[in-house]
Amino acid sequence: MRPERWLFTIPLRLRSLFRRAQADQELDDELRDHLDRKIEEYVARGMAPEEARRQTLLDIGGIEKCKEECRDAWRVNWIQDLFQDLRFGLRMLRKSPGFTAVAVLTLALGIGANTAVFTVVNGVLLRPMPFPDADRLFLVSLNSPWGPFEWQPGVSDRHYLSFHERDQAFEHLASFERTRVSLTGAGDPIELPATQVTTEFFATLRTHPEFGRSFSAEEDQVGRDNVVVLSNELWKERLGSDPQILGKTIRLDGIGRTVIGIMPPGFNFPYAAKLWLPLGIRIEPKNSFMRPVVGRLKPGISPVQAQAELKTFAEGLVLGPGENKLMPQIMPLKELLVANIRQSLLVFLGAVGFVLLIACANVANLFLARAAGRGQEMAVRSALGAGRWRLMQQLLAETTVVSLAGGTAGILLAYWGVPALTALAPSGKVPRMEMIHIDSWVLAFTFCASVMTGIVTGLTPAFKASRRDAREALSQGGRSVTGGHEGMRRALAISEIALALILLAGAGLLLKSFLRLRAVDPGFALRNVVTMTVDLPESTYRTATQIQTFHNRTLAKLSELPGALAVGAVDWLPLGDALAMGDFHVEGGVRPPSFIVDKPCISPGYFRAMGIRLLRGREFSEHDNGTSPGVVIVSHSVARTLWPDTDPLGKRISMEDNPKTGDWLTVVGVVDDLKQQGLAQKPEPAIYQPYLQVTRPFLLNHMTFVVKTASHPESVASGMRAILRDVDKDQPAAIATMDSLVATTIAEPRFQMKLLGTFAILALALTMVGIYGVLTYSVAQRTQEIGVRVALGAQNVDVLRMFLRGALGLTCAGIAIGAAGALALTQVLSKFLFEVKPSDPSTFALVALALTSAALAACYIPARRAMRVDPMVALRYE
């Protein structure tokens, strides 16, 4: 464009986008004025008016061409072309409602599944913590990654107090720990999740009570710590939204505590707490507690600087004998909640992404078939001056319209799918459930995914359709254009099979792992066993004698229940939330290094009630009490480790650090090993003590009663509650069957297996549709060939064999490519597998067989259609 043309293009640029008619009129006026001035200039030079007008038009190259150049200078033609292409695409899709419905539904399944999973990922992993300046909140950890327990971020009490005094990086530091308390006097007794927090906790989070106040600095001291802050939900559900609750006393674990504050609605951090109690951290000579610590960085201090300060502090610590080196670490506060679930969610997000890719390949195949019949249309457009990019833009606009429609339908599917996902998830395993909902970020993700899907889906059809030679297409006259796309369609089908195999292999591995986990022998009975867990408050039951009296009364009444075959009690039930572990001493022998054991306290009859096999010796009896010599029963692995060549009965061990004469305990029996911490864990060594010989109250406060029944265990649940009310009406209890407890421990693997299996089945269904489409297209393309073959004597079985061979060729190629990808990608499932390798050959073989069977089933209808081709009709087929 010549320089003078810019004089009238710039002012019209913005108006041209939204007021096209006005902009065109102004452009006409500007051009007319420009032409008149140029004509007058030529006339002044001596030209005739007609000659001057002709020369002016030659100079600008034609009025319409000049207009187009001006519109290009506005840089909005592409937007106008896009709107035009979208309108044209909508008209074309309305003409083929069946094609449009199949394409939209296919993409809706893929995009909807991705939207649902992203909604969960966004709520759990991506959304910030609901605290002011949450990016300044970090967990402080000084823990050892080596030890018998799973690593968790935390700081020991003595290190916390020392670091709190020297810290220069954090504005506030607070420690906390989860607990459970019994609420009485507000309806039926109930056990509630609670959190003990240091007094800076709420200031650190910058979240304060909606009513009342938080803890003062002195309220962590003994005698001044009988205060409590309630959650808004507890205040409404159990206390009737009492407006005068502040200053009143409620009973928690038998202790009266004054309510000083009510938190805002929805606040339950951490651990879904219903109330908060003050935590006073003090150094105890014999015990060292490890608790999480949260800190808020000071303004101007970066996490790197805080990490360096913590590292310097850790390097200056003097470790005691046997203490492992500590690992200083600063991590975002969110890690406390999402660290254990992150990998699972990312695996599911990747799996559902594969489903979307399969859907894209399916729809690309549909558009390839559609483009094959539009060869003449593209040729005419090309002959009229449309460039290749312009043709591709038109076809991409059509696929984008379909993809956006699929995305809209996908959001509707996600509104149903998100509640289904959260309902399927095991209770308590997915954190931040309240943050999972469809919001603007999810809608933005769906829109971007829809646009990208439209582009990815349309690139191959657009590229293939736009590269066809115009003269070749036009020379075919009225004949249909169907060739040229067969190879690409087969390649897309092969890619679908490969992606489906990867998902099926992952689902198959998780299914096999879950079946093996469920078949594990835990070492105790599961059927017809019901449990009742009771936590006795220290304020009411202060001594071991009081606690044992409660246990004895309860056990005696439980044994009288109709249908009760055996009754027992244990402090830490197998597969429960916690256990007691530690070391011990062997009389006249040496305990192997790092050999620690579980230390359950049990009642007589416990082994019979739980179905734990007695291998040697005897069980505990009522005579094993505080006045008789101390005895223990050891598990098989303890006997094998300590006395491999001798009889363990009569040997003596001690649980004390410095055993005296009266501290030695005699082994009177050997029982089978059992799974204490989980079905996927190894059986653990254990030393059992009779609870009547235990003198420390804190080892007896938590007790689970076990009843073996002759019929369904649910039939005795009401009787167990009645017995507990009779013994102590203020004690709440958690009653469950062993079957349900085991089901809870395997709920997460079941969830993973079901979810990935659902995605795999969806992928398989889409793949079958893709194979069906390829073969149907092939039948239509090869109709004349089939007619010739039949006319020359080919039988139906020959035609069937031809198409089966084609389907098997696609399947084998897809299986070969998919197997290679699966061998690499299923390695990410190693963490979730139990006694199954990611490269398990039997699983891959079964998956390949299932995929082959599905492919053969998909080709049945196209093959039947090919066998029915009439040779006379086929030879005239176009």
Present the secondary structure layout:
Elements: H1 15-18, H2 20-44, H3 49-60, H4 63-74, H5 77-94, H6 97-126, E1 137-143, E2 155-156, H7 157-166, E3 170-184, E4 190-197, H8 201-205, E5 211-212, E6 227-230, H9 232-237, E7 249-252, E8 255-262, E9 275-278, E10 290-291, E11 293-297, H10 303-315, E12 327-332, H11 335-338, H12 342-372, H13 375-383, H14 388-424, H15 440-466, H16 470-475, H17 486-518, E13 529-535, H18 544-559, E14 564-570, E15 581-582, E16 585-586, E17 597-598, E18 601-602, H19 606-610, E19 614-617, E20 631-635, H20 636-642, E21 652-654, E22 665-671, E23 687-690, E24 702-709, H21 717-727, E25 734-737, H22 738-745, H23 747-781, H24 783-791, H25 796-825, H26 841-858, H27 860-867, H28 871-875
Parallel strand pairs: 4-9, 6-8, 18-23, 20-22
Antiparallel strand pairs: 1-11, 1-12, 2-10, 3-4, 3-7, 3-11, 5-8, 6-9, 7-8, 13-24, 13-25, 14-24, 15-17, 16-21, 19-22, 20-23, 21-22
Helix pairs in contact: 2-3, 5-14, 6-12, 6-14, 6-15, 12-15, 12-17, 12-23, 14-15, 17-23, 17-25, 17-26, 18-21, 23-26, 23-27, 25-26, 25-27
Characteristics of this structure?
878 residues, seven-stranded mixed beta sheet, six-stranded mixed beta barrel, 49% helix, disordered N terminus
Largest sheet properties: 7 strands, mixed
Assembly context of the chains: single chain
State the separation between the terminal residues, measured CA to CA: 49 Å
Percent of residues in beta strands? 5-15%
Overall pLDDT level = 82
DSSP strand tally? 25
Helices and strands: which structural class?
alpha+beta
Helix content: 40-55%
List the total number of helices.
Answer: 28
How many discrete domains? 5
Radius of gyration: 38 Å
Low-confidence stretches: 1-18, 476-484
Shape: globular
